[in-house]
Design goal:
By secondary structure, this protein is of the alpha/beta class. The protein has one domain (13-276): Metal-dependent hydrolases (TIM Barrel). Helices cover 31% and strands 18% of the residues. It has eight helices and eleven strands. The protein has helices at residues 28-37, 68-81, 100-106, 132-137, 139-155, 184-196, 219-227, 248-258; strands at residues 13-17, 42-48, 86-94, 112-116, 119-120, 123-124, 162-163, 200-204, 232-235, 262-266, 272-276. Helix 1 (28-37) packs parallel to helix 2 (68-81) and helix 5 (139-155) runs parallel beside helix 6. The chain is globular. The termini are close together. One zinc ion binds next to loops.
Amino acid sequence: MAIGRGFGRDTVVDCHTHTSHSDGADTAEHMVAAAEREGARLIAVTDHLTLPHDMDPACEASVPEAELGDLIDEVSAAAAAHPAVEVVQGFECDWYEGCEDNVRRWSEGATFLLGSVHWVHGAWIDDPDDRHIWDELGADAVWEGYVDAWCAACASDLPFDSMAHPDLMRRFEREGAAYGKDPSPLWDRMAECARDTNRRIEVSTAGLRKSVRGYYPAPPLLERFAAAGVGMTVGSDAHRTQDVGWGIADAYAYAAAAGFDHVDVPRADGSWDEIALR
Ligand SMILES: [Zn+2]
Ligand SMILES: [Zn+2]
């Protein structure tokens, strides 16, 4: 249970944040400054990695390819300006069919990669303003398609360090898009996929700020991940300064209650540390 370079149980780390280079509201400088104000020891800046034109025609959701260099320069500058906070250059990488070469090319220079699935059956599943895929296919098909894509992402040869918000398909479950069957087989399958492919998963506080009104993953899934011996990171998925570090201290208690004894922490130099939870 070594806490390599001084991370204690009360250390707040936030391993999932966005800037205005993708779909966030604020600059890297402002996000890192917010982390410092919040007393966070480490922040990973994980903008949505560049996407193919047909998935994000106006570059609204992801970092335009031409801005990748600027983003990395700005994250480095913010790190230098705020030595009290360790700043990790990451990306949140969508998994989609055939993404592998794109992800490898566009994520060069990052030390921490979140793998995530928002694109299912050829559509975004978490956009409150465009739920056509939910209307067309129904909730059960979207949930099941999500799990298929999530397991394919885990099984890909991309070096995803942690799988972000693993049960994102719950996004609209309190808005008429709950799963109509017993979800236990889905949870079992996801825990097996993460274990068999040696993926960490993320405990995200983002759902608490949305109609989900709970963490990703929900307890039945998180408990299965813990029992399977899967590693875990934490993140707020902040898209604005106010949410940096949001709910992280409570997320530690939530993860401990589900059976985790430590949080994995990616370091800026590419190494890993951990925070003991008990
Ligand atoms: Zn995401
Ligand atoms: Zn995100």
